[in-house]
Automatic annotation (TrEMBL):
Keyword Flavoprotein: yes
GO MF assignments: electron-transferring-flavoprotein dehydrogenase activity; flavin adenine dinucleotide binding
Cross-referenced SUPFAM superfamilies: FAD/NAD(P)-binding domain
Species, as recorded: Apiotrichum porosum
Keywords, in A-Z order: FAD, Flavoprotein, Oxidoreductase
Protein name (Swiss-Prot/TrEMBL): FAD/NAD(P)-binding domain-containing protein
Family of the protein in this entry: Belongs to the FAD-dependent oxidoreductase family.
Domain of life: Eukaryota
Gene Ontology CC annotation, any one: cytoplasm
Domain FAD/NAD(P)-binding intervals: 29-352
């Protein structure tokens, strides 16, 4: 029996940032796209999946650390259009709405900024918020930026970094370390300083036990940090650990840093918290991800944690602050925006998407109560230090397994990651529509 579009029950997946904003960053959602792929071939015929994304194109986020440094990478192995033809097969009942933003969350519907099937109100049976997290520009595109405009921005950044004599990278998490690696690999004679507020690389804010699941993942192993520190030091990268940039509180001299970032136009004196000074003409901010949850907080501030993550229960359902909340319905959340245990990474987002997909399909098919999500306690981190050259360090990685402990990532994985950041396996493979996506799409 054929089901008309108006008779379908909608499973709405919101990726990218919810609200239109010219000064906010809106990465397309890895978790949301992965969930759409899982559900599209498994939900009952009376349901359809609607994937909403604020961006018209997706970025292969891991490769952005290279795209801002190495000329030519902005046009290859980096982006893909988010369209009906690239996401879903021909004649699919499922739909892609992009670029489209969600303006309001209600109990059983979301309000769009663009009409769909004659209305801006889109009713749903289930709504999954997978809006990801932001990173400092230009590691992510600004809302409303076209693909060509974004490529122009990336080329401009590449040109400024190439011209810079001394670059300060702020933030010693994964992205900051990889940017320092890309710079030192592509410009071995350039002065690069990596400033990190903690005493070792990859060490971030202390992790507290997750209130829902009762445990948290262990911090990055110290031996991984030490290996990366040794490799970067061998390349001549200056590591300023346990330091912060001191932002000026008043007027400064022309030769002093005024608190801005990107190109400074000339060498200027930057002061660190210890009193040490560095001469630099480029400051690049890479201080980590911020969950894209502000619009959820505007609907129900109690549904968002102090750290900005959307609070979910064992079924990955959003936990509202009260029964009167707009979110006190069939809202779920996964990925970088959700308060789920584990390191926020593409691999974790993919596992959460698959897990929620299984729970939803079982629930929609049987009509029984939603099952519970059981997160894996396995984790891993692989850090690449630029395109490999003969005799150069590749980076380092570690995989952590229950009962076994930490296992170093083999060299072949590091070489493969250094080549293209697994673009074919983890990015192009997401696009299963009738129009195939590959390197030529950017």
């Amino acid at each position: 029996m054929t089901v008309e579009a108006a008779d379908h029950k909608n499973v709405v997946i919101v990726g990218g940032k919810l609200l239109v904003s010219r000064n906010k960053l809106t990465p397309a959602s890895f978790a949301g796209h992965a969930l759409a792929n899982y559900l599209a071939t498994r939900v009952p015929a009376t349901y359809r999946v609607i994937l909403i994304d604020r961006s018209a194109f997706a970025l292969h986020a891991p490769a952005m650390v290279r795209a801002i440094v190495v000329p030519g990478t902005e046009s290859r192995n980096l982006t893909a259009p988010i369209t009906q033809e690239t996401v879903f097969p021909a004649n699919s009942r499922h739909r892609v709405l992009a670029p489209v933003a969600v303006r309001e969350l209600s109990r059983t519907s979301v309000t769009l900024d663009t009409e769909f099937e004659g209305s801006t109100e889109l009713p749903f049976d289930k709504c999954i918020i997978a809006t990801g997290a932001t990173q400092p520009h230009p590691l992510r595109q600004l809302a409303g930026t076209s693909l060509e405009d974004y490529r122009v921005i990336l080329r401009h950044t590449q040109e400024e970094l190439a011209a810079a004599k001394s670059v300060i990278v702020v933030g010693g998490g994964g992205s900051g370390v990889e940017i320092a690696g890309e710079l030192s690999a592509h410009y071995p004679d350039k002065k690069v300083t990596l400033v990190h507020s903690r005493t070792r690389l990859l060490q971030t804010a202390s992790q507290s036990t997750n209130k829902t699941w009762g445990f948290s993942y262990s911090p990055i192993p110290e031996r991984l940090s030490s290996s990366l520190e040794e490799q970067l030091t061998r390349r001549g990268v200056d590591l300023a650990l346990g330091e912060r940039l001191v932002f000026p509180s008043g007027p400064v001299q022309d030769t002093e840093w005024d608190g801005t970032h990107s190109s400074l136009g000339q060498l200027k004196t930057v002061t660190l918290s210890s009193g040490r000074t560095i001469e630099a003409d480029y400051v690049l901010i890479s201080t980590g991800n911020i969950p894209n949850s502000s619009f959820v907080a505007s609907a129900d501030s109690g549904a968002v944690s102090d750290a900005g993550y959307i609070i979910v229960d064992h079924t990955l359902r959003v936990v509202p602050s009260s029964t009167e909340s707009p979110l006190a319905g069939e809202y779920y959340s996964i990925g970088d925006v959700a308060a789920t245990p584990g390191r926020k990474a593409a691999s974790t987002a993919n596992m959460e998407a698959t897990a929620l997909g299984k729970l939803l399909v079982a629930h929609l098919t049987s009509g029984k109560e939603m099952g519970q999500y059981s997160p894996t306690r396995m984790s891993g981190a692989v850090i690449c230090l630029g395109q490999p050259h003969e005799g150069t360090d590749l980076g380092a990685g570690v995989y952590s397994f229950p009962w076994i402990g930490d296992v170093a990532a083999p060299q072949w994985i590091l070489r493969r990651m250094a080549k293209d950041y697994f673009v074919n396996q983890t990015f192009f493979a997401r696009f299963v529509g009738e129009r195939k996506i590959g390197p030529e799409d950017g």
